[in-house]
Design goal:
The complex is a heterodimer of chains A (162) and B (737). Chain A has 162 residues and is mainly α. Helix content of chain A is 71%, strand content 0%. The radius of gyration of chain B is 52 Å and the shape is elongated. Chain B has four domains: 115 residues, no CATH class; 101 residues; 148 residues, no CATH class; 203 residues, no CATH class. Classes of the chains: A mainly alpha (162), B mainly alpha (737).
């Protein structure tokens, strides 16, 4: 299965997991950001000539999607050379598959937690005080996905089920 | 105590009473044996008593001492800087001076006093004389005691003396500082000469030479003399400062620190009248340019002549407005809405302003050059050094527009840009720290599962924590895949650069990289700002697929019989969708019910796709003629006079989730979808081209296209009703009848 097929398959699977078109598009945006950031990292290893060549070709004032695409393709082609197209597709496929894996895992844990699985409960309980999650909670609250009271401790795992 | 014990402090310690009156004060003192020591009565009482007794007093004792305040022996007045008298006249003086710290004494009169002190070897052998002397001593003692009583403030006197001495000491310190300062100022000039600073003038260098050649140590010794005034010292330092003096001055850390500050101030001041030439050297701005600058621009770089300022301002505004209009037109032609363009222009206008200022700058530079040339020509005598004697014209180095441009670029124009640069910077500074991409991805997952949970059980219990627990336990492999592994690579290399060449090279690379980085992110912002909603998905999808929509790519494969839909090739039922085949496509979690006919010219009817827990009705109208349709001709919208004209209106390949309701299924994305769905609705409802075009204006059809783009599942009647026009009613009646 080539990357195009992988991407399409991943998209369908994400839709089946509950992603809407809108959320899938947002995921694409994130994937693109990751792609560009990684390409910029790669560019730091390139020599002066390559960078100057890129600098001279970039369109400074982008006014159309065509120009935007050209800019990004230029950056990728300097960063990854001949493998630019393959790299961006691979990266997108990987990114989508990563999201699928995460979504499935979260869904599975949530189901087991709500079914009263002691392992799942322990796993979640262990993360309750994880400061890294504060940012996520804040973000989800802002996005309207969760409420500030939406805390694992507020509800007994056995009372609800998916 | 012997009689050599005058009022000399040798151990910073006072005996019982040591004070003396300014007049005739003096106090008797007894030795360890209780004998009265006549040598201690120096206040004239002894002499008076002897005189009264008809005896001739010992030599010198008839002269009462009148000690000044400074002569009062106190602990605090002992100074180390007093030189030892070079030729003590009596052995006693030497004896007294020896124990004093660093060979100094606290009173310059000590030798004189030592002289006046009766020599203990002198003896008065006559009993009458001796008796009279004792008597006189007793009287003197009594008189002294009387005076002592009267002078009950002797302790106060000492304290006052100490205070006065302290004040003197402070004044002495101040004077010393003044002298040091004088030396510093002179030394600064010397140091400049030594450093060979480029802006040192020839006369200064000569001074330096003079100073360097000085061999006298007067400078140093004078520096220690508090009596020397600053002016005197300056004069002295300028005339003769030896190498040793210089070393002494320059090695003083306090002086070095002050010199640095003064040097810095001087450089800053000089910079105002200097510019950096093409080789990076600081060069003095030629006088005529400097003078004309002072007349033309104020300290903020603003043109002071109101007429000129208005002319430049008008030029700037006119160009700015024109450029803004051009940019808006370009964007409009590319299909962006007014709202999108407004949002974009909020940022772009500052760039345009900077761009326009380049033009205005050129005008100002040319005008200024002309004024400088006029200035020189108007006063050839004053500016003769700027006139070529052979041609009689202003020398090319001055009339060179590049030179004037360079100077103004450094001294004036940056102040113009500051406002725009600040305006551009401010929004960036105000922007809150973006939510990490990882968190945003988790947020999407949370949104998906939250919805699922709500459907299933009405709860999204501990969702963030569950997400966290999961992704954190998935291990680092995923997180690290997209971690910014080398984001500071160049910066780090630069910090560790070992040679100037390496550093310069890395700085250049970093500069270029920053440019690329900035434009990469600007391009990303363009995606985010200009292609909103479904459009961005299509745009990004196209980017990942090499300029073609995902559906188009997959569709091509379907036609070629290569596409494999589903998760896991060769596993279980899956759809191999070929041309003209009629199959149900089953993906993991995606079930298509009913037949799907992909053959052109037929309608597949209604397809219902069940995606996970979401049930979304999808209606795909395959078979709509987009070659010679009502609104679409040859696959493109035919609506002259509208931005829609020429947009793609092709049909989706079919067989994909959400069919014609999914913009990602269309090559041209959301607008393609809107155009196709309107065409489909027109054909399905039997609207003819003449009915449409005769009853609706271009702008109304334009609006219909917009409606079908923003709401692909709308029906034609609803869309027509929203137009609320006579023509729309006519069409409504036609299709309902």
């Amino acid at each position: 299965m080539d990357y195009t097929q992988q991407i399409e398959a991943a998209k369908q699977e994400l839709l089946s997991l509950g992603f809407t078109e809108e959320k899938y598009n947002k995921l694409l945006e994130l994937a693109l950001e990751e792609l560009v950031d990684n390409a910029l990292n790669e560019l730091q290893e390139k020599d002066m000539e390559a960078l100057q060549n890129l600098e001279s070709k970039l369109i400074p004032d982008v006014t159309s999607l065509d120009e935007a695409n050209k800019n990004l393709d230029l950056i990728l082609s300097v960063a990854y050379g001949e493998k630019a197209f393959e790299t961006k597709q691979k990266m997108l496929a990987d990114y989508l598959n990563l999201t699928i894996e995460e979504t499935k895992s979260v869904k599975d844990l949530l189901q087991r937690y709500q079914a009263g699985d002691p392992t799942a409960i322990a796993a979640i309980e262990a993360q309750k005080d994880n400061p890294e999650l504060e940012e996520l909670i804040k973000y989800l609250t802002e996005e309207g996905v969760a409420t500030s009271e939406d805390d694992v401790a507020s509800q007994s795992p056995q009372q609800t089920s998916l | 105590m012997g009689n050599n014990e005058g009022p000399v402090i040798i151990d910073s310690h006072f005996e019982d009473v040591t004070s003396q009156s300014n007049e005739t004060g003096g106090t008797p003192e007894t030795n360890n044996a209780g004998n009265i020591n006549a040598g201690q009565y120096e206040d004239g009482a002894m002499a008076a008593a002897l005189r009264e007794a008809g005896l001739i007093p010992p030599e010198g004792e008839n002269t009462p001492q009148h000690p000044t305040t400074s002569e009062i022996p106190t602990a605090t007045t002992t100074t180390e800087n007093q030189p030892i008298p070079q030729n003590p006249t009596t052995p006693e003086a030497t004896t007294v001076a020896q124990p004093t710290t660093e060979g100094t004494v606290n009173n310059s009169n000590v030798n004189e006093r030592a002289k006046a002190t009766p020599n203990k070897s002198r003896e008065y052998t006559s009993p009458a004389f001796e008796a009279a002397r004792i008597d006189a001593m007793k009287k003197a003692m009594k008189a002294s005691e009387e005076r002592m009583k009267q002078n009950s403030a002797s302790a106060d006197y000492i304290r006052k003396a100490q205070e006065k001495s302290q004040i003197m000491k402070t004044e002495l310190g101040k004077k010393t500082e003044e002298v040091d300062k004088g030396i510093q100022q002179n030394s600064e000039e010397i140091k400049k000469g030594m450093e060979g600073l480029s802006y040192s003038s020839a006369p200064n260098e000569q001074k330096v030479e003079t100073k360097k050649s000085g061999t006298s140590r007067r400078g140093k010794s004078e520096a220690k003399q508090p009596e020397i005034t600053k002016e005197q010292n300056t004069e002295t330092a300028q005339s003769v400062i030896s190498k040793e003096d210089l070393d002494y001055v320059l090695s003083n850390p306090k002086i070095q620190e002050l010199m640095k500050e003064i040097l810095k101030e001087k450089r800053e001041e000089d910079k105002k009248n200097q510019y950096v030439d093409e080789n990076g050297n600081l060069v003095n701005i030629p006088d005529p340019i400097k003078e004309e600058m002072a007349l033309t621009f104020n300290k903020d770089g603003v043109v002071m002549n109101a007429e000129d300022a208005a002319r430049y301002g008008n030029q700037e505004n006119e160009l700015y407005d024109r450029r803004i209009a051009e940019r808006r037109k370009e964007l409009k032609e590319n299909g962006f809405t007014d709202a999108q363009i407004d949002a974009y222009m909020e940022i772009a206008k500052h760039d345009i302003k900077l761009e326009i200022q380049q033009y205005v700058k050129g005008t100002v530079t040319r005008d200024f050059r002309r004024r400088v040339i006029d200035r020189i020509n108007s006063n050839p005598e004053k500016y003769k050094e700027y006139i070529d004697p052979t041609t009689g014209k202003v020398i090319s180095s001055i009339s060179d527009e590049n030179l004037i441009g360079r100077i103004l670029s450094q001294k004036v124009y940056p102040k113009w840009y500051q406002g725009e640069l600040d305006a551009i910077k401010k929004p960036e500074q105000k922007e809150p720290e973006p939510t990490p991409k990882k968190t945003r991805r988790w947020g999407l997952i949370g949104g998906v599962l939250g919805f699922t949970a709500a459907v299933a059980g009405g709860a999204s219990v501990g969702l963030p924590i569950t997400i966290g627990a999961t992704v954190l336990t998935l291990g680092a492999k995923m997180a690290e895949t997209y971690a910014p592994k080398k984001i500071d690579s160049l910066t780090e290399k630069l910090a560790n650069a070992k040679t100037p060449e390496e550093k310069a090279n890395l700085e250049k690379r970093l500069k270029v990289w920053n440019f690329v980085n900035k434009h990469a992110h600007n391009t990303m912002k363009f995606f985010g700002g200009m292609a909103t909603g479904a459009g961005i998905g299509t745009a990004i999808s196209n980017f990942f697929m090499g300029g073609k929509g995902l559906v188009e790519v997959v569709g091509n494969r379907i036609e070629a019989g290569q596409a494999t839909m589903g998760h896991g090739i060769g596993e279980g039922p899956q759809s191999q969708v070929g041309n003209g085949t009629e199959t149900g496509a089953t993906n993991s979690g995606v079930t298509s019910e009913g037949p799907t006919n992909f053959e052109p010219g037929t309608s597949s009817g209604t397809e219902t796709g069940s995606i996970g827990n979401n049930t979304i009705p999808t209606e795909t109208n395959i078979g709509i003629d987009t070659n010679n349709g009502i609104l679409i001709k040859s696959g493109r919208v035919n609506l002259p006079g509208s931005a829609w004209n020429g947009n793609l209106g092709t049909q989706p390949p079919g067989g994909l989730a959400n069919g014609a309701l999914n913009p990602s299924n269309f090559t041209g994305g959301a607008t393609n979808m809107g155009a196709f769905n309107l065409e489909s609705a027109l054909q399905t409802n039997g609207v003819t081209e003449s009915l449409l075009r005769n009853n609706l204006q271009t702008s109304e059809i334009h609006r219909l296209l917009n409606i079908f783009t923003s709401n692909p599942s709308t029906d034609l009647s609803t869309a027509l009703q929203s137009l609320n026009s006579e023509g729309a009613k006519t069409i409504l009646e036609a299709i309902s009848g």
